[in-house]
Model the fold of this input.
Amino acid sequence: MRNEPVVVEKFVPEGVIWTLDSEIRYSLDWKLTSPETETHSVKSWSIDICSDYAMQSLDLFPLALLLLRSAQPQLLRRGILRPDYRLEQVTADGRMDGQHGYTTRDRADRNKVTLVYFVNRKWKTSWNGGLHLFGRSTRVGRLVTPELRASARQVEFVPGRLVAFPANTVYGMAAPTNGARELRMSLCYVIDNLKSTKKH
Done:
């Protein structure tokens, strides 16, 4: 896909938005992945929901698939996904006020695609907490501080929004600000756009 991020909205039923919010907020066994953030008042978490534990105990993976399939018509029509794509990974991320994430790059292959879905069913614009896309020279593993975010392309956190971009893009999710008391939640999908082997 092209290097520019693509935003997809209004593709998922309202009931799925509410169910995903509740399941991720209350059912996931959130695990600390960044010990450095323990200096903050609360912790930040990430869990791989492709794991057997999540699928068997939380029943969240089918919901994540339902979400992806709801977006699929638009993603196919806009050339973001190929018909024979393969889902490689789904992760959930949660941040509270002051919990900055780290820059990351999901894959080295630009033919693979990252999809980030904003889970929260309600969100105030003043809380920020959006997605930041960085230049290729940005090092992976840097703290997504306000100073670093100033150099990035920002996609505002809007409930029910899906953002697609090449998986070799360096990106990071910002922490909520301005006294937000909500857990900012997102789902990240990594897609392999398999090349067709059919003969024409």
